[in-house]
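Support request, please re-run this one:
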Amino acid sequence: MTWLIILGTITTILGLGGLGYCIREAARVKREGLTPEEAQPRLRALIAINLASVCVAAMGLGMVVVGVML
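Re-run finished. Output below.
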């Protein structure tokens, strides 16, 4: 099941990349010093990306675990 481990690793890395993107964007919003009314829509958009990234990373880790167990 080497292919499952490799695919799971790639999926996990993609999820972690999405989390890194969310962190960078949130830090950029904070650095810009926007008012709460201006920052809120940008941060709300990041919530969906953040949740999707966590789900993708979790699925990738699950694939790695299944690949190791098999």
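The longest helix spans residues 36-69. DSSP finds two helices and no strands in the chain.
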